[in-house]
């Protein structure tokens, strides 16, 4: 179903009718909700007929203010009023053959003293709601400072009251696609124009869970100072022809899982071939033996319901025993379902004594809604909405970053000489990894953390360590002897995590590398071996990512410096230059990195292993659950790789230390923050 919600600021004019008909032709909504219509009685009926609707309900305008219309034409749609108020209409919607749900259209009064009257009434509706509920419209409130641009400072108390009302009502903000702000204020001479997000869609947990693909699109503003909202509840279909494999934690609860694992694992020689074979066997086993837990749950519930109906006509010992058996099977299925949603939500805690399936399911739906990419602005500023074009735009962006030629800047570390490593340090750096180091590295990884391209999280290693440790240790030893082998485990997925709410540009997503567990073992051990030496080789001013240091120290020092400079008197002048650097880790030259590592006097073997970790990578981008084509980078480091932070601080810290020494030698004082 598609619903259009629009504060039209008056519906009686011919300009409104022309604009509205064009929106209807373009988007074809099933229900149209018009707010602040400013007309009522026979005049309202005439306008509704002129814009082409046969069915409607309304709340009369108060003179030339307010007014709410809900209009539709579909014959299979029945909308009835449950409660009506000058500022909202609460309705029940019934589609033929579908479950009924509730919808509330809101036009909150722009005057605060009138507006606050509806929050208790809507809270009462929320507290007595026993079904799926959507509430949408113009609330004339914002939740926080991110929902306003320009003008005076926000009223924090008002924002908190609105946010608290949403939480107390058990509502979930459906977010938005498109423009961040839904209302544009007037332009007064000499004053800044104000923009706010006054219009939104909210839903309770039941509605959001069933209609988990629902979206709220902010349409182009026309005629009114409010943008129309388009709420689509139908399932959004995506091309799913390249969905990556994911090991499911619930499989481990099945009594046949261990036999399937053992039969597959013990018949392969190497780790990589064993993982590939295990993936194939588990997919086949899941299809033929494990089955679809949701279909199984529905089948069991239907059988139990049938038995209970039969028992109402008389006692049947056989059916009573069968009911107990089916209930035990249902408990088993519910455990698996809880494990399924827990893994997808990747939460680390669970409330004792309660199956949190609904909680985890809701978390996933909200997370998917935030991470789903429905449209993006291209380099020309135009929106890209077609799925194939979106995929091309995303992969081309990352190819341009990681594959373009690197601009090399000559640089020598001649103004700063890091201390030498001792012979014992060097021997420890290049000593092959022992079994305890490997085990410790694997068990330090979150069991359900997002897996790499092979699809296996740390859980499978932890729960089957006795069986897997031999092949894992053999592979790690091979990588240490011949670092080129690292390539076999270095296929990486790039997950796109929004940097801001409702991003519009591809560079507003943070690319997080999802590395395979075996690769993480190597880099985690490298980090553990190098970490004790960071303090000696990174200047004291470099504070982030260094054990025992706090970035807050630099903030305090900066404030003290500014305070001191303000109080200084005399002819001698001082100046502070604040520069914001874009972190260019994804553009770092591998040659530059290698040279810096060699200048730090790391053993050649250590440098070789690190450079193989960095340079043998291949990438696939994950977006909307699908995997793009593979591409090979020529530069850059991966955010999400365990060794990422160490390399960035190690290299940049030494380079900055060299520049600082150089500046000091020329009579200049230079400093920087973490």
From TrEMBL:
Alphabetized InterPro entries for the sequence: DNA/RNA_pol_sf, Endo/exonu/phosph_ase_sf, Endo/exonuclease/phosphatase, RT_dom
Q: Which PANTHER family does the record cross-reference, listed alphabetically?
A: ENDONUCLEASE_EXONUCLEASE_PHOSPHATASE DOMAIN-CONTAINING PROTEIN, RNASE H DOMAIN-CONTAINING PROTEIN
Name of the protein in question: Uncharacterized protein
| Location of the Reverse transcriptase domain | 504-661
What is a GO molecular function of this protein?
A: catalytic activity
Q: Which Pfam families match?
A: Exo_endo_phos, RVT_1
Start and end of every Endonuclease/exonuclease/phosphatase domain? 6-226
Q: Where is the signal peptide?
A: none
């Amino acid at each position: 179903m598609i619903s259009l919600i629009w504060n039209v600021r008056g519906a009686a004019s011919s300009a409104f009718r022309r604009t509205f008909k064009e929106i209807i032709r373009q988007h074809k909504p099933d229900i149209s909700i018009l707010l602040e219509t400013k007309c009522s009685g026979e005049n309202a009926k005439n306008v509704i007929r002129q814009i082409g609707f046969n069915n409607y309900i309304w709340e009369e305008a108060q003179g030339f203010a307010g007014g709410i219309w809900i209009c539709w034409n579909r014959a299979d749609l029945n909308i009835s009023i449950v409660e009506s108020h000058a500022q909202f209409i609460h309705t029940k919607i019934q589609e033929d053959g579908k479950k009924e749900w509730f919808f509330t259209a809101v036009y909150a009064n722009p005057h605060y003293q009138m507006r606050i009257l509806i929050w208790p009434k809507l809270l009462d509706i929320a507290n007595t709601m026993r079904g799926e509920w959507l509430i949408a419209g113009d609330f004339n409130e914002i939740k926080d400072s991110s929902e306003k641009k320009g003008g005076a400072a926000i009223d924090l108390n008002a924002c908190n009251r609105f946010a608290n009302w949403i939480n107390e009502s058990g509502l979930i903000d459906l977010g938005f696609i498109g423009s961040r702000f839904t209302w544009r204020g007037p332009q007064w001479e000499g004053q800044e124009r104000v923009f706010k997000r006054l219009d939104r869609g909210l839903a309770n947990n039941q509605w959001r869970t069933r209609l988990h693909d629902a979206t709220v699109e902010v349409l182009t503003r026309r005629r009114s100072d409010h943008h129309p909202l388009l709420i689509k509840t139908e399932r959004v279909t995506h091309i799913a022809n390249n969905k990556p494999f994911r090991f499911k934690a619930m499989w481990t609860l099945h009594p046949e899982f261990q036999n399937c694992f053992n039969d597959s694992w013990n018949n392969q020689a190497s780790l990589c071939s064993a993982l590939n074979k295990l993936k194939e066997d588990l997919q086949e086993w899941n299809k033929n033996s494990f089955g679809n837990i949701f279909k199984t749950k529905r089948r069991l519930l239907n059988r139990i319901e049938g038995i209970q109906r039969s028992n109402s006509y008389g006692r049947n010992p056989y059916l009573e025993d069968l009911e107990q058996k089916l209930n035990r099977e249902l408990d088993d299925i519910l455990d698996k379902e809880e494990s399924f949603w827990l893994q997808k939500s990747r939460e680390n805690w669970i409330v004792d004594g309660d199956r949190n399936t609904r909680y985890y399911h809701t978390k996933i739906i909200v997370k998917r809604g935030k991470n789903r990419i429905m449209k993006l602005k291209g380099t020309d500023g135009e929106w890209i909405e077609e799925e194939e074009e979106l995929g091309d735009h995303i992969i081309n962006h990352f190819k341009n970053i990681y594959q373009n030629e690197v601009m090399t800047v000559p640089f020598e570390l001649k103004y700063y000489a890091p201390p030498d490593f001792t012979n014992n340090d060097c021997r420890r750096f290049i000593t092959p990894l022992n079994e305890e180091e490997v085990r410790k590295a694997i068990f330090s990884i979150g069991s359900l953390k997002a897996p790499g391209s092979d699809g296996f999280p740390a859980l499978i290693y932890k729960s089957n360590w006795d069986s897997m440790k031999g092949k894992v240790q053999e592979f790690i030893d091979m990588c240490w002897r011949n670092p080129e082998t690292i390539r076999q485990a270095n296929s990486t997925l790039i997950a796109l995590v929004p940097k801001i709410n409702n991003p519009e540009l591809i560079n507003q997503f943070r690319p997080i590398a999802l590395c395979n567990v075996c690769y993480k073992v190597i880099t985690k051990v490298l980090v553990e071996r190098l970490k004790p030496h960071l303090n000696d080789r990174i200047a004291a001013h470099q504070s982030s990512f260094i054990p025992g240091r706090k970035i807050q120290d630099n903030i305090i020092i900066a404030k003290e410096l500014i305070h001191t400079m303000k109080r200084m008197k005399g002819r001698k002048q001082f100046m502070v230059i604040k520069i914001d650097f874009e972190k260019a880790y994804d553009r770092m030259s591998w040659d530059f990195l290698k040279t810096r590592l060699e200048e730090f006097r790391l053993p050649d073997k250590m440098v070789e292993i690190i450079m193989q970790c960095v340079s043998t990578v291949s990438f696939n981008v994950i977006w909307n659950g699908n995997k793009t084509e593979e591409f090979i980078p020529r530069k850059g480091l991966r955010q999400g790789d365990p060794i990422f932070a160490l390399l960035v601080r190690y290299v940049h810290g030494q380079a900055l230390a060299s520049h600082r020494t150089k500046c000091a030698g020329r009579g200049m004082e230079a400093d920087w923050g973490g």
